[in-house]
Every structure is written in structure tokens, then in C-alpha cells.
Amino acid sequence: MKILITGGAGFIGSHVIRLFALKYPDYQIYNLDALTYAGNLENLKDLEHLNNYTFIKGDITDENYINQIFDKYRFDAIIHLAAESHVDRSITDPLAFAKTNILGTMILLNAFKNLWKDNWNGKLFYHVSTDEVYGTLGTQGLFKESTPYDPNSPYSASKASSDHFVRAYGETYNLPYVISNCSNNYGPNQFPEKLIPLFINNIIKNKPLPVYGDGNYTRDWLYVKDHAIAIDMVFHKGKNTETYNIGGFNEWKNLDLVKLLCDVMDEKLGKEVGQSQQLITFIKDRPGHDLRYAIDASKINNDLGWSPSVTFEQGLLKTVDWYLENSEWLQNITSGNYQSYYDKMYLHD
Ligand code: NAD
Ligand code: DAU
């Protein structure tokens, strides 16, 4: 089987590529990635020697190029992760999100349809999506697969739109598909614009920790390797046209999470516990900030037997250890363009 994984040089994609390339030596794994600021081949250095893994540099919005590589490789299945993924960037540059997340997904769907429309047997388009498509919860309740879509940010609206197009291709052209909608991931290789790696980096550098609003926003955190395991299960055992919600059963208010992270970092860095909490700085809120996300993952749990393998405390320790042991990775990624992004986002408030 030839599997195209898009966005494989990014955070979650790199963990999915590693799991598939090592676990399934008989599959040919193709990683298509444009290597935007978020894509980093360093994340996959340990796999370069494998002969069932191929990297293809390319942009999913480049229709001619995508058609060419589909003709050349004739992929049997796609696991589509490539996206613009950061909510704050979607607020400053929404069109980039429409282009990659909506148009890019459509170009992939179209190329896949043109290749296999006369015989869909054994083919699959797996679309990796987010719980943010459901909008925001109040203090009660959980997102179920049947929760109506109600996205609030340009990022979540673009992901919701891409989910709709995948379903529309299923209905209209019989394209076989599965979709999963996952909660907040954390773990090794996450770009330090997202809450946990950004704050780890700032604690190491003794810089302020910019908490949006009052910090009373809630997210449901999942260790990235558990997301990759869930993707493996949905890919192999998920039912055609079904959606699976994936979550950590692990809700944290931002402020509580940040305080825990500060204390874990203090212990690791040999500082007095409580010291890093003094770096917490409340700043202007994110526009359209969703109050709470929490996933009801009972369907994937009951139907496919998936549940998270690590607790949050274990996952957070592994994550902190990884960032401390990979200071060169962090150093490389936070130089150059990252610094001007950081200054623009946080120093001109
Ligand atoms: P990421 O930003 O770390 O990685 C995205 C990857 O896509 C990068 O390697 C980038 O180079 C590539 N890419 C971007 N635009 C491209 C284009 N036009 N053509 C080809 N490649 C392109 O993202 P992530 O956090 O790993 O998220 C991966 C997927 O999972 C996304 O679809 C995201 O919506 C979804 N998701 C993420 C989370 C999370 O917490 N991070 C949770 C649920 C779902
Ligand atoms: O829920 C899944 C989504 O989780 C994914 O689809 C997105 O790709 C991913 O980026 C993530 O979105 P969030 O907006 O929830 O993640 P982020 O790490 O940006 O923010 C987490 C929470 O922390 C959110 O309430 C905003 C807050 N925050 C974030 C940053 C970067 C701060 O208070 N300060 C910050 O500097």
C-alpha cells in the first residue's frame, strides 16, 4: 500500500510518519510537505535511512504539481494533516488559512477522485481535523460527533469548511473517507508558538509568560503519541464515512496548567518551586477566544478500543524532558523569523 501523509514534517505529522514507517515496513510512506515555518525535517532525521519512507517537497495548493505526483505515485490512501494550524496567526492572516486548509484540501480531494473514481476499492481519504470546528462549550457538556459545527476563528472556520468538502466528496463521488476531530495536542516537536512549548521556552529564558485574558479558558490536552496511535486505529479500523472524536479526558484551565508547568520546570531546572510562576503576565485576550473545549471520546473508545496510554502528569514530564534535552532544536527554531513573529505578537501589545 502506498500512503501519502501530508504535513509530515510538522508536529503531529512527524509522529504519525514515524509510527507508520516503523510499524508497517510493507507500506510505502510518502511525506508531502511544503516546509513552511512549521515544517522541519529535523523532526524526521532518524527515519531518513528507511527504504519505505520518501519525502516530497510540495505545496498542496499547487494543483498542477499535486496532479503530477498523484499520477506518478498513484497513492492508495491519504492521511491529510497539512494545514495552517495556529489560531493567532489565523487572526492576523485569515486568507492564508482559507488557501491551505480549504483550497489545499479540495485540490487533494480532486486529485484523489480523478485517480480512483472508477474503482474506489481499498482506497481511503483520511482527513485529520480539530475539535475547534464545534465552537465553544459553556462550563458544562462535551463535544460529541453529533455536535453541530459552530466555528469561531478563521482557523476553525477553514477546518470546518474542509471537513464539509470531504463529506461532500463522499456523498457526491462516493469517495471513501474518515474524519477525526481531536483536542489540543502537546509533546515533543511542537512549534513554540503554541501554549506549552512557548511557555517552556520562555521559562528556560526567564521571559514573561503571556496568559491571555484571565486564564480561565479550558482545553482538553492529549499527548501527541496517543493521537498518532488513534490515527493508526481510525485508519485501519474506522468505518467509511464515519467521524471519530479524539480527546484526552483531561481538561485544564490555562492558568492551572501554566502553574503546574512552572512548578515542573522549576524542579527540572533546580530552581526554588514557585519562582517561575512569578513570570506569569496577564495580557490582552485573544479575539473570539473560545471558552472551553472538551471531547466525548466514548465512540473511539467503545468502537475501536482506543484510550490515552499516558496520564497528563507523565506526558508533561516527557515533554519537558524532551525540550530540555533538545535545546539545539529549540534554539534553531526560535531564531530568525520566529523572533520577529514573537516580537509582533507579544511585544507590541
Ligand atoms: P503544524 O503547524 O505543526 O504542521 C503543519 C505542517 O503542514 C507543517 O509541516 C507545514 O510545513 C505543512 N504545511 C502547511 N501548509 C502546507 C501546504 N500548503 N502544503 C504542504 N504542506 C503544508 O500542525 P500540527 O499541530 O501538527 O497539526 C496537524 C494537523 O492536525 C492540522 O490539520 C491541524 O488542524 C490538526 N490538529 C492539530 C491539533 C493540535 O493540537 N496541534 C489538534 C487537532 C487537530
Ligand atoms: O483544540 C485543538 C486545537 O488546539 C488545534 O486544532 C490547533 O491547531 C492548536 O493550535 C490548538 O489550538 P488552541 O488555540 O487551543 O492552542 P494554543 O496553544 O494556541 O492555546 C491554548 C490556550 O492557551 C488557548 O486558550 C489560548 C491560550 N494561550 C495561548 C498562547 C499561545 C495563552 O493564554 N497565551 C499564549 O501565548
Automatic annotation (TrEMBL):
Enzyme Commission number, as recorded: 4.2.1.46
Family: Belongs to the NAD(P)-dependent epimerase/dehydratase family. dTDP-glucose dehydratase subfamily.
Reactions this protein catalyses: dTDP-alpha-D-glucose = dTDP-4-dehydro-6-deoxy-alpha-D-glucose + H2O
Membrane-spanning residues: none
GO MF term list: dTDP-glucose 4,6-dehydratase activity
Coiled-coil intervals, chain numbering: none
Cofactor(s) demanded: NAD(+)
PANTHER family the record matches: DTDP-D-GLUCOSE 4,6-DEHYDRATASE-RELATED
NCBIfam families: dTDP_gluc_dehyt
NAD(P)-binding domain residues: 4-316
UniProt entry keywords in alphabetical sequence: Lyase, NAD
InterPro entries to which the protein is assigned, alphabetical: dTDP_Gluc_deHydtase, NAD(P)-bd_dom, NAD(P)-bd_dom_sf
Name under which the protein is recorded: dTDP-glucose 4,6-dehydratase
